[in-house]
Specification:
There is one protein chain. The chain has a single domain (4-123), classed as START domain (Alpha-D-Glucose-1,6-Bisphosphate, Chain A, domain 4). A hairpin with a 2-residue loop joins β3 (43-48) and β4. It has helices at residues 16-24, 26-32, 105-123, and strands spanning 4-12, 36-40, 43-48, 51-61, 65-70, 79-85, 92-100. A seven-stranded antiparallel β-sheet has the order 1-7-6-5-4-3-2. It is globular. Helices cover 28% and strands 42% of the residues. The protein is built from three helices and seven strands, in the order βααββββββα. The N and C termini lie far apart (39 Å). α1 packs across α2.
């Protein structure tokens, strides 16, 4: 069964600069996304409780977009962090695009909700 893309938006009280660092820099990713993160150029190794998964940085627009492709997933699958500022409220909006099996989309969204709550705590918001 093919995975489907889904999108979630989060409103965060952080500057695009700070948020960009938290979705790209290994030391910051290890504070909220995974237990440990190592990188070598565009190769990232995300580690959770001894389990590791490799990803390649496939898109990087400073303060706007960071996208990764899991090494063991289909060529057209990725997960992406898009950063925008609402011109009216001036809130920073983080949009996450990710892929999941159709029957796992809700579980994956709940996982992202939990991770974003961690992100908010470590950013001090």
């Amino acid at each position: 069964m093919a995975k489907e893309v889904f999108e979630i938006d989060y409103v965060l009280k952080a500057s695009p600069r700070i948020l960009y660092d938290f979705v790209k820099q290994p030391t910051h990713l290890a504070q909220w996304f995974c237990d440990k993160c190592e990188s070598n150029l565009d190769q990232y190794n995300f580690i959770w409780k001894g389990y590791s998964e490799k990803a390649i940085l496939i898109d990087d627009i400073e303060e706007q977009l960071v996208a990764y492709h899991w090494e063991n997933s289909d060529d057209d699958e990725f997960f992406e962090f898009a950063i925008q500022v609402n011109e009216i409220s001036e809130d920073t909006i983080l949009t996450i695009n990710d892929f999941a099996e159709p029957n796992e989309v809700e579980d994956q969204k709940m996982w992202w909700d939990n991770q974003i709550q961690k992100l908010i705590r470590v950013m001090g918001g």
